[in-house]
Each structure stands twice: as structure tokens, then as C-alpha cells.
Automatic annotation (TrEMBL), chains A, B, C, D, E, F:
The keyword Nucleotide-binding applies. Transmembrane segments: none annotated. It comes from Mycetocola lacteus. Belongs to the carbohydrate kinase PfkB family. One of its GO terms (biological process) is fructose metabolic process. This is Sugar kinase. CDD domains: KdgK.
Amino acid sequence: MSRIDAGIAPTEVLTFGETMALMRTDSPGPLATAHQLALGIGGAETNVAIALRRLGTDVTWIGRVGDDGLGEKVLREVAAEGVRVVPILDPHAPTGLMIKERRTGDHTRVTYYRASSAASRLTPEDVPAERIAAARLLHVTGITPALSASARETVFAAVDIAREHGVTVALDLNYRAALWSAEEAGEVLRELVTRADIVFAGDDEAALVVGTGECADLARGLAALGPAQVIIKRGDKGAHALIEGEVLDVEAVPIRPVDTVGAGDAFVAGYLAEYLAGEDPARRLHTAVRTGAFACLVAGDWEGMPTRRELSLLDSTDPVQR
Amino acid sequence: MSRIDAGIAPTEVLTFGETMALMRTDSPGPLATAHQLALGIGGAETNVAIALRRLGTDVTWIGRVGDDGLGEKVLREVAAEGVRVVPILDPHAPTGLMIKERRTGDHTRVTYYRASSAASRLTPEDVPAERIAAARLLHVTGITPALSASARETVFAAVDIAREHGVTVALDLNYRAALWSAEEAGEVLRELVTRADIVFAGDDEAALVVGTGECADLARGLAALGPAQVIIKRGDKGAHALIEGEVLDVEAVPIRPVDTVGAGDAFVAGYLAEYLAGEDPARRLHTAVRTGAFACLVAGDWEGMPTRRELSLLDSTDPVQR
Amino acid sequence: MSRIDAGIAPTEVLTFGETMALMRTDSPGPLATAHQLALGIGGAETNVAIALRRLGTDVTWIGRVGDDGLGEKVLREVAAEGVRVVPILDPHAPTGLMIKERRTGDHTRVTYYRASSAASRLTPEDVPAERIAAARLLHVTGITPALSASARETVFAAVDIAREHGVTVALDLNYRAALWSAEEAGEVLRELVTRADIVFAGDDEAALVVGTGECADLARGLAALGPAQVIIKRGDKGAHALIEGEVLDVEAVPIRPVDTVGAGDAFVAGYLAEYLAGEDPARRLHTAVRTGAFACLVAGDWEGMPTRRELSLLDSTDPVQR
Amino acid sequence: MSRIDAGIAPTEVLTFGETMALMRTDSPGPLATAHQLALGIGGAETNVAIALRRLGTDVTWIGRVGDDGLGEKVLREVAAEGVRVVPILDPHAPTGLMIKERRTGDHTRVTYYRASSAASRLTPEDVPAERIAAARLLHVTGITPALSASARETVFAAVDIAREHGVTVALDLNYRAALWSAEEAGEVLRELVTRADIVFAGDDEAALVVGTGECADLARGLAALGPAQVIIKRGDKGAHALIEGEVLDVEAVPIRPVDTVGAGDAFVAGYLAEYLAGEDPARRLHTAVRTGAFACLVAGDWEGMPTRRELSLLDSTDPVQR
Amino acid sequence: MSRIDAGIAPTEVLTFGETMALMRTDSPGPLATAHQLALGIGGAETNVAIALRRLGTDVTWIGRVGDDGLGEKVLREVAAEGVRVVPILDPHAPTGLMIKERRTGDHTRVTYYRASSAASRLTPEDVPAERIAAARLLHVTGITPALSASARETVFAAVDIAREHGVTVALDLNYRAALWSAEEAGEVLRELVTRADIVFAGDDEAALVVGTGECADLARGLAALGPAQVIIKRGDKGAHALIEGEVLDVEAVPIRPVDTVGAGDAFVAGYLAEYLAGEDPARRLHTAVRTGAFACLVAGDWEGMPTRRELSLLDSTDPVQR
Amino acid sequence: MSRIDAGIAPTEVLTFGETMALMRTDSPGPLATAHQLALGIGGAETNVAIALRRLGTDVTWIGRVGDDGLGEKVLREVAAEGVRVVPILDPHAPTGLMIKERRTGDHTRVTYYRASSAASRLTPEDVPAERIAAARLLHVTGITPALSASARETVFAAVDIAREHGVTVALDLNYRAALWSAEEAGEVLRELVTRADIVFAGDDEAALVVGTGECADLARGLAALGPAQVIIKRGDKGAHALIEGEVLDVEAVPIRPVDTVGAGDAFVAGYLAEYLAGEDPARRLHTAVRTGAFACLVAGDWEGMPTRRELSLLDSTDPVQR
């Protein structure tokens, strides 16, 4: 351990949550006939953090992992992307793990080894008030409160501290059916929505909180709970937003997707990067759909996240730059 | 060798034939510029056997291979799939071998090293009457009689024994131009058709036996030779069948195929699995086209064969299950 | 599911226990800098089963795994080796998993994801009396009772049934410090030793049961608890045995080991294969040390297990056979 | 060095220029997250040479490379294709190198390490008059004069010698923006065009020399400078030609391209092979578009170049030949 | 770019210099017959930085790279290790590159593409005084002054600033014959030695500065130039040191080396980590030889650097920890 | 086909024989558990040809292969090494194939698919008199006459033509037990020895021709049959020679061998290269043992063959050249 105390450096975005080791087969087929797995990492919050960083935003991620090789892997990959990492090594629980079986090119089955993982043991002490206060924006997802009671408590505590310090709170609902029931999730997420400034949700996720409805109804329903900015992510149908009372619709960028996992996180990062840069809502959504589209062009949850320079490739027709 | 004699266990389906070591390049291009080959196995009868097993049917395969590393490979991969393997090790001849050059994504060239292979030395003694009698269905293909005189003799002997014991005989014509002429094949296959209960054929294969004609003509022509169930496999155009006098047409499942090799074998397995399960002809064909479609979604002759649970993925629109 | 009931086929050796998916880095270095993992399987009982099978003994393994891709992997690899597999699919718990980090060529760190695994939920019903009665020998290890209370109960129940039916009981102490304390293990293993006919142990493992001592003391101590055959495995120092009152010492075969994991299981299989073949104790130990030595020549827990023909390579000086 | 002087063997086509080591990532994504690079070679003139050789034409390539491992790589791969290689090893400069980052499936970024490379030090002495005189056709590209002053001098000297000896001069404009400005290139290429018999150009390249215009205008403009054969390569729109005063238009072969790099070189080779074989202009263009189309079906700059036998696969509908 | 100014954070060690992309063949043999290269990074200063970080020391590295994919690779790998990276992107020059050909297991040939690289364009402005003042120790090597005049100037400027601010200056002579002559190097390195507090050198390197002599003579000669701590690295013969007037000799740890590249950098890091932790000279050297030994156990320039916990593996005899 | 007739170019060494596609597992273990095979080529005569070429000798190889992908592979790899290849494509027989299973690091099992291969159909017309007359030396091995009657006839015919034209005849006995019996071989090889100028043999091979004896006896025995130069290759014991009546003994270079296959061919090439360069017998043997030693340092039959520059690495103690 270093004997120099660097204090808490200011950051634009602070986020935390579970990032797991991610193993996947290289080509489609049964996992049982595979002999090699690619080893990487994945987690909604670090997907957003990496995408933000590639877009030029300063980000800090607080991550709790096991004191094991996979934990080192998680920490090193996030740090590699230029995200500032605040590691919490849990000597008593392993790093979470997910295995992706690409059964066919279009069907992926995910198996988790995350019950009792290190990250499920997150506690409010892991996310100290000074770190939150040193940020301009706190980003949380609806996955963390599903991990455990203490993780849920951590999210609520962090959000409350952010509000106290005037730090903007962004929330992506990110409902994961494998972790909790729709009923339980709906109730908790509704509580979180009431405390957030910016809320991202898919149609189905919004419906968990405000009941089924048309896209515009969902946005209005969420906004009615408090958040000034509500954005409904609609995949290849674009996005619908209700921002400071203004309704905006944006179309998706037409692409041939290779891997749609991570596209929602890319969208969130595109929006937040422009928000923090002081851009207007239309510009935020413009960048959001483009960032989301680009992320679909490469396999991997976050590997395809674009830099600002790379976003312009979406407009290029020349396949080779030389 | 074990000193415990397990006797001949009953099985639902008995099959036999040549399964070869299969080497293929991973990505398209000339074989001459490749540096690595993927090592697997392939054979029409074991393709069917594996597909049947994944669909839940009990299958036994009698396989003659060389007493060498590639023979061990063949045996271990078939056994790995849960097919019961009755190995015959030939100390005097090598295991057959096929090499697949994917010259482009759409053009594959196959080179065989199967002349004088162990499997071409199959003899009637290799397929004893007790094993046939212990099965409900015997499945043979038109490849085996093309391998050698003794292999041909083995097929006819097995079919005769099956008929004697009231075991259903299924036959897939499977004409291979590299092994014998259309004339020679037509004559032999016609003889086999007269002895079969269930016959599968492509349009061209049926024409070898009954002469050119419309799809319905071909089916009628084959049925006139004896088999109560005749199914014309028509690839992405579906299938036409004449079953116990009833005409049925079924459309293919629309997919983007990755590798169509093995699709015909999958179709056969889908049909036979439902036939053995007592399902009606429409249900048999429904499962047959779906099994065939699924097999096209993954590279490899048999790796893509689906389980019953996986068949439902064809109806799913959610790319990731988590 | 097949509608044919095959009954319980007789087998020479019956064994059961946890076999896990095993992921390992291909070359030495930190796991955190690796990008690919080789996917295989490993478990002490299947290591023994596979080695026995390669030596020509008929073996049946009862395995409880998760109803997931890694469970399919475990079942297919064991079946591939010709071991008869009796699968028990647990829909409520995942397949156990181990990750091997080869930090240097000489130092390996293993991380387990096996707490609450499917195999830890083994119950006495999983190992029915008919299966035990149909065997000549039951092989158990000291790992299974460390997995859970129900797994422990299963081992004791199976051993008791074997004794009732006159089935020989073989036990490898296999102490795993990651699973339970030396105290707890010592007590349970002592109980098992009293019920076994053949006991295998390393020096340290024997000491857990009978207290520290010279090699001969340890063997005598174990034999005093009941077993007619006690074999102390001593790695590159060979083995010491007390068999039906006779003391035997055998030297190890001098080799340059590549991977010593699995060598103890190979030793056990070599001994048991000869015991079942009716060979005398000296012959059993001769084959045991040779099988153990051979297994060290190849990376992997079981991949290096030799056939009887391959054992003779230990005497060959010609590197290439052509 | 051999002590036998083989003299200067006659050849059909002589060509020279820079061929570099080429490293590329296997799958799309940032270079920064890649861990393996495929090592190959690439250069416009050897692409043409290899394509010509596969079509059956005798070709000689004069190549200047560094006296290093990558230089050996370049020489061995060109020689492997049956092209006669005249190596010039430069002990004072390294072999040129290019790195291809496939950022997405549709966007490739190329980085060069070719400034001061061995090939940029080409001098007129490297291309002796006897070698030129021993050929029927000299092929040069607009890349070489962009490498350095001495390389430019070498091209002009070689072209002049060819004209003196009645050797046909073929020129592919091949403008590379990374090497020189449009202005500088336009001037030099215009000079070369006036000296060539056969000129190939893309629309944009032709415009550099004769100013913007319709396709037919461009061809007429180039022809007005001297060459009897002018061919405008138009990618998936086919080609337009003005040959001995005759206008010809040919459509492209419809394909799904995998990698379009090298397609232009394939087109050139298809044209030249037929020209040397005495075929008429329509046949030359027919083969040119087919060779270009085939080259797009496989990844790699030259790996996909077809043999004459393989060209017929474009007409085949049977995916597997067996 | 982030709009939050984080200021200059204090660091224990500051270092700078050229880190290149590093491509190497996986197995021994000619580069010309290889088809894949492993892509990594390497540089003496980042080797030391990474080793220091793994030992728990806080380190900052200032790196100048090209604005290209390989530059991103260099930055991401150093950041991945937890070293704080201060990137300087040079839009006008490429990232340096080195290629390692393992001709045999014992003979490696390195080819460089580093002339005119981005790092050779380092200038004093790249290493601002505030960053130096914020460190406890500045580490430089004799490689940087060999890159270019401006790089040399940068080293001297940085060293002078460090001395002004009381920051300890550590210097590893690191003579590279490919970059400059022994005469030129001797003169410049001598100047640097006079300005350093801690000097590391191999026997041959020390001789460049003070003339040939016995090990003790070399140390005395260097110490006479000013540095209070002089350490002669002697590879598998250990080390000799003259520290504050005290002579110390330490033996190497006996190991079977896999790759000795990076061992000298590991040694330096081991020494400096303990120096900064306030340990006495004997302890520093003890850790230095152990860190150096460990680094030899794994392939790669820095991949094998140990953590403090891993250093204890050198004393372990148990190959598997589970 | 080219319409330019290049005539028969003079060459220093002419050789011919069977070169096969060679597939091998990358790491030791059963072939049956491997999933990838490395694809290369191998044949005694091309091993010698490649080694000669790397040492700077001009060589031509006449090779008969199948008109298939593996035949193209053989031709391209030999041509890649700078050997002039005279291809004979046999449309009626496949290219020979060998599979190497590295069962352990020290035990390799080879399986051949070469019966009825294209090369076994070599005929005297394949080796025309003009080609032989254009060479200084003809190199044949004892493998070719074992392939078939026509291949045997080809060897004798070629040797006779060489003698007529004053071309030196070199012969490596190369007995292959898998191809013919010792008796049959002994008789044929004796006939060949009487016609050769230079004979290479291992102890055992020499004994086939002249009966068992001490090394010196064997050399005398062979020399008594006619050849002026007899060299007994003794592996790691060096070599014994009887050259123009002079006895010479040379020791082997001490190395740690990685793969000894091809070492004998390297030895032959080292000797012949120096013989053709006019060096004296001692120098020939000196280079022979060094070339043989170097070839053992790299895996592969010919990949490790050294250039003259690389031979000096055997004297280097510095592992890294940079």
C-alpha cells in the first residue's frame, strides 16, 4: 500500500455496482462442445463508465470483488479503460461470474455464479459520502438493489447523500428477471425513481413501475414520480423522452447489429456525456442513439463502445481508411 | 476388457455405418493457406443418432473404425453425445477421413480418405441379429451400400433381419456421387426401398429410383415400391410426404442458415423421434422441419442438433436469456 | 425420455461424487492477464473412473450436475471416455466450477465455485441399492463427505449397502483443506476407514486419521481399523502397502513430470484394475506406480491417463513410432 | 549463394514495388483490446502477381525488403504462390509494415510503418533492363512513385526501358492519399499515363489526372493521353472501358462481399491474364469482374484470389462439392 | 476531455520513457513461418512501474505515444496494472514497435520500429516540474537519452528539477547497443551518474562509465561519481552493492528461468519498493533478487512481476494450492 | 498455363520423392481429446532441400501430389522456402497424409494415409534426363523405392542417368519399417549403395546392408560397395565417416533437443552444402553436426533448419539480440 494519501479526487461521474468475470464461447454452438472460453468482464455500471470514458468524461467506479484472480481481472480491465477504480477486495466471497453460451448466432443463454458474490456484499460504507460529494453525477442501476439487502441499502444511501450534496442522480432501471420478481422490483424501483433526476428505462421496465401503457404514457408516468428527465430506450425503434416537460422522439441509426448487449448502456453514456457537457436535450439524444448503434457493431458487452472520433464512422461509406 | 457381460440391452433405434474423422478450416479461404484444422467427426448415421439422442430417443450405433487415434476420436465423440456405441476396431485398416475446404463462405470442397477404410470393411457379422431384434427401429442410409460389396451385403442382411423380427426399417437414400454412379446407385437403392417402411429422399435422390417427376409423383413412385411412409425432403422449400396414403405438405421454418450440412439428418431424426413417440404424421413433419432448421444455425455437421427445449428458441425473439 | 427401460446393467466398478467444470489458463502467468481459458472437467472419482476405463475395466459413475451448459459438459466428457454415466440433473443448483491459475510453471492456484453446487446436494436416493448391488467394487473418496451433510450421508449409506451385498469398498482419503478442517475430516474419515476394504492415503492424509508417524506406522494404523488392503501413496518416492498382512514397498518410475494433478487417481485406478483382474499385490502396485507416472507426462487432470498399450511406452527409448 | 548462374529467365509479366508485412486483428473491435494479430503480407503489385499466377500466368516480382524476419516473411509468401521472386535485401532499412484495425465489420483503419522502409529505397539498378526485356508485359502502380524520389525514378526508368524493348506497359493508378497529395499525384500519374499501353483507374483516380467528369469522359480523357486500353474500375457497379477506340460496359457479379480489399488488384489480374492469352476485350472484362468478385468472398488482400477452376464456383448453387 | 481539473496528485515514484507495442511469436521458430503474433507492450520504465505497483508502491508514468491503435494499447495496458498514466498523444509520429522472434528456445532476435517514434520526440515540457515535485523518487533509464537529442535533454532537465526539489533520483544505466555507441553512451551516462542518488548497472554497463574492472571496482568507481547507493546487477550470480559506504553481496535465488527479459527491471523495482518503505539495504537487496527471480518464471517482459503475496511462492514446495 | 517456355534451368541439387501433408497436435496428449491440428508438410527429400536452400544452395525438387488442397499445400510450402518446385499433379490419387500424435512430450505416434497416394505413383517419366543432367548432384533416399514398384524403378532410372552424365549421386538410406521389411529393404538399398557416390546411414540402416558391426566396420562395409564417401550418422554421439579412404570422427554439439525429427536430414544438407562449396571433409562434417543440432531446437520436421547466419547462434550465450 502506498504511504501517500491522495485524498478524494473530484470526478464528473461516480458509479458503483457488480462487475463480473464474463466467459463466452467464440462461435455459436452448445457450451458442452466448446473447448475454449474467452475471458472478459461485464457489468452494467462499468459498461456505462467505459462508454463515458471513451466519450471523454471523467468517471470513477467503486467495485467490490473477491480477493482472487477473477477479481484482479475485473479491476484491471476497468482501469485499462481509463476509468478510475476504487477497489474493495472481499477476502470472504468470490468474484461474481457469468457464462454466455451462444447457442446460435441469435440465441444466447447466460448462466450466473453471482449468488453470495463479493459484490452482493456491498455495504453503505463502501460508498463514502466524500466520494459522492466529489462528483457531479451519481449513476446507479436497478441491478444493484436486486443483489442483496445490504446492496439495496447501499443504493438508497448513496442516492440520498447525492441529493443532499446537490449531485445529479441518474438511474437506469435495468430489470433482471433472474434476480428478483417483477413485483418486488416494481416496488423498489418506484422508490428509486422518486429520488432520481434522470431516469432511463425500456418499455417493459417502465411498465413495472407505472403499469402498461403507450410509450408516451410511460414517460409521463415516470416523470410524474419526480425525475425531470425521463428517457424511454426503444432499441431499433429509437427513443422517446420527456425532458423538463418537453417531449422528444428520436429515431435509431439503421445498422446491421452484431451484438446488442451493452447497447442500452452505451445509450445511457451518450446521453450523460452530452448532458454533462451542457448540450441540449436533442443533442443528448442524438449522441445517445448513435453511441448505442455503434456499440452493436462489435461483439462484447463494452468492447464496441465508441470514442467521439469513431462515432463519425457511422457516416462514412469508405470501408478502409488508409 | 471387462469381465462382466452386459448382454444386449434393448434400444429404440439401432443404426450403423461409416463415421469419419472430419477436419475443417475455421474460416473461408484456400486450404493451402490454412495452418490449423479443427478436428471433429461426421457421418450421416451418427448425425441422425446424435440428433435423436438430443431429442430424447435411446439410440445404439455400431461403428467400425481403425485401431488408431482418429478411430478413438470417432468413438469418443459419439459416446459423448449419449449414444450407446458398439465399437469394432479394425487392426488392418485406418479410420476414414474427410477434409472440408471452405473455399468461400458459400462453397465447400470435400476431400475423402475413405477408400479401404475400416468402415468399408463392414461385414454382416458386425451387425448381429440379437442387436437388431433388440431395437424398435433400424435406420440405414444409401451411403453404406456404396462403400464396398461387404458393406452392401451388411445393409441388406440387416434389413432382412429387421423385417423378420418386425423391427421398423427406415432408409435415407443419401446418394453420394463421389462413391458410385447414378445408375449403380439407382438399382441398389430401389432394392432397398422395396424393403423399407419409412423412406426419406431429396428430389434428385428419389428421381434416381423412380425417374424424374414432380414432387408428388416422386413420393407416389417410391410408395408404390412398398414403404408406407415416404418423405421428400425439400430443404428451404419444406417437405412433401405420402404417409399411409395421406398426402402432407409442410413449409420450412424461415431462417438465415449458417451451415446446411446435417440439416437433412436432423430432419430425419425429428421425424423418427416423433414417430417412435407415437405422434401423428403432421406432428412428425412439424418437428422434422424445425429440427432441420435449427441444425442450420450452427457450423458443423451435428453440433447444431437441438434438444427439445432448444427447439422452442425458434419462436423466441429475445436474443439473450438471463 | 426413452420409453425403453434398460434395467440396471451389471458393472465392475461403481463410483459417484462431484465432477466440476474446470477452466485453466494455457500458459503460466497471472489469470488477470489471460484472455482465453481452456474448458474441461475434473473430479477425483471420474479421474479414477476414466483411468480404470482406459485400462479396460467397466465403470459406472453416478453424477449430479446442474441443468446447465457446464453440467452437459461434465456428462459428455465422462461419457466420451466410455464410462457409463448415470446423470442426475438438478434444476435448482448450478454445476460446480473450478478455475486453475498457473501462476508459474510450478505454482498453481485453484479457485472453486462449488459451494451450494448441484453435487453438494447429493442424497442417498441418488445412489440406489440396485446399482451398488450390481457392482463388484464401490469406490468412494474423502471429498464427497466434505461437500455437505446430505453428501456425507450418501457416502455412508452407499458404503453400508455395499457391505451388505458383499461389494468391495475402496476408499481414497483425498483430504481437501479448502472444504473442511483437519479435525472434522479426521473424525469422518476414520469412520469411513473402518468400513472400507481397500484404503489409499498420502502420508499426511493417513496422519489425519491415525496420527503422525513413519510410513509403516501409518499403514499399520489404518489396517488396524479394519481394511485388509492399505496403500500409502508417496508420489515420486513410490508407495508402501500393507496387504492382507504383507508389507510391500515399490519405487516410483523415474520421469520428468509435466503435471502431477491426477497422478494419485491414476495410481488408484492402476491398483484397482489389477485387483479386479485377480492379479497379486506386487503386480497391482507395479501397475499403480506406472499408471501414476504416465499420468504426469501430460497436462490435465485425466487427459494423460494411459491405456494398457500406452503403459509400455514408459520402457521405450524411440521417441517416434512410425 | 548458389554458384550456378541461371541467367534471366523469360517471363510473361514483370512487376515490382513495395510489399509489406501485414498484421490484422481476427475479429472486429479496437486494436487496443486485441491480444493476437494475424501475420501476413500485402502489396498491390504482389496482389496482382499472385492473382495472375493463380490464373495460370507466369509472373516475376522484384522486391526490395529489409534483411529481417518480416522481409523473409514477404519473400516466402510471394514465392509460395508460385511467383518468381527476385529478392533485394536491404541491410540498412527495415521491411515496411502495415497494421489493420477492423474497428467494426465495416470500418477498417490502416496504420503504416513504411516511411524509410527498404522498399522506399528502390533504385533503377534494382530493375535491370535485361529483366524488363525478358517480359511480355511490365505492370506498375501509382503507389511506387509515391514512396520516394528514387522509387519514382525507378518506375519511370523501367517504363522507358519497356517501351524501348516493345514490352507492353500496364499501369494501375492506385492513388494513396496517405503517401502524397492529390496535386502531386495528379502530375506524376499524368506523366505515367502518357507512357502506358493499358491503364486501370477508379473514378476518383482518373479525375486526379483528367479532372472530374462522367465515367465515359474520364476514359476518353485518359485515352487521349496515349494508352490504347483504358479501364475504369467501378466496384459493385462493374467497369467501363475504352479499348482500341471501342467502348465497353460490363456489370459486376452480384455477391455478398466479405472483404473488398484486393478486389481492384484481382480485376487487373483478370484483365491482364486474358489479354496475354489473346482474348478479346469483352472476354478480358468478363474475367476481370469475375476475378474481382471472387476476391471479395474471402478475408485477406490476396488470399481469396481464384484459380480458373474456382471461378466457375460463382455459377454453382450447390454449397458442398463431395 | 473532462472539465474537472484534478490537479497534480502526489505520487511515490514518477517515471517516463518509451514503451512500445511488442509483438512476439508464441513458440520458437523463424518469424517467417509464423502466422500469429501475440500483441503486448514493453518498456524498461513501465516494467519497473508495473513491478513497483504490484509490490504496493504508488507510481505515475508519463508516456508519449502516437495517436493510433498501438498507442492506445500501450496506455491501456499500463493503466490496467494500476499505474497512473499521464498520456501525451503525438499526432505526428507513430507509437514505437518491437518484434521478437524466438528463433529457438534460447535465442531471441528483436527488430525495432522506433526511429522517429512518438516517444523519441519527448521534450522537457512533457515532464513538468510540478509532477516531479509531487513525487518522492524519480526513476530514469539510460535508454531515454539514447532516443534523440530532445529526449536526452528531457532526462537531464527532469533530473535537475528532481534534485532541486529534493526528490531522490534513481538511474538504471540500461545500455542498448542498437541505439548508440558505447563511447557516446559512456559519456552521457557518466554525466547522469553524477546526478543520481541510486544507480543500477550490469557489469558491462558499469564498465562503459568507469572502465573494466572487478565487480567491487565497478561499484566503487560509480560511487566515486556521486551516488550514495550503487547496485551492480549480476543476473544468476546475484548482486553486489555499495550503499552509503557499506559493501553488500547477495546471492541469486536458484530457479529454472523461462524468460529472463524484465528480470533486471524487476530487481530495480524490488529494491526501490523496499527503499521507499524504509527498509535497510540488506532487506532491499533480499527483495530485489527475489523479485528478479520471480519475473523469470513466466514469459513476457512484465507479465511475471510478482505481488508481495506471490513472492512467498518461491519458498513453497506444494505445486497446487487448493 | 504460361505460354513462355523457360527451358530447364541449371540447378546445383536435384531431388524428388514423397512429401506429405502433416497434421499434428500442438501439445502432448491423446489425439482423441484434441480439437485442433496444426497443418504443415513433411518429407525427407524436401527437408534436405529446404535445409540446403537455407544454407544457400540452389535446389530443385520434383514432387508428385494429388490435384487437391493438400497437394497445393505441399507445393506452396516447399516453394515458399525458395526451393524450385517442379509439380506433377495426379488427378487420380490423393496427396499422402501423416498424422502425428504426441502422446507425451517424449512419445510420438505417426499414422499414415499414403498407401496409393499420388507420390506412390511416381514413374521414370516424372524425372526427365534433362533435369538430372542440369544438376551437379542428385539426392535420393531409401524411402522412395519403398513406396511402389514404379517409384523404385524411378529411383534406379534417375541414378543411372545421373551416373551417365557425371552427376554426383547422394543417397540417404532412410529405412522406414512401416513401408517394407528389413530383408526387402536390405536387398534394394544394397543395389542403390553400389551406384552412389555419397552414402548417409544410421548404424541400424547400415547394418541392413552390410550386417551388424562396429561403426567403423559399417562404414568400411558400405565403402567396399563403391561409394567414395560414407557417413554414419550417430545422433547425439556425432558421426563417423570414411571419405576417400580417410577416417573421420566428429562429436555432436551438446544441446537440449526439442524435436529430433528432421535432424538427420539437416545433417545431410549440412554435409552436401559444404561438399558442393568445395570444402574439405572435416569442414563438411563440422557443418553437418551443427546443422543437425540446430534443427533439434525447434518443433517441426524442417521449420528449425538454420541459415548460415543462424548457425552462429550455437556459439552465442546472449539470449536476446537487440
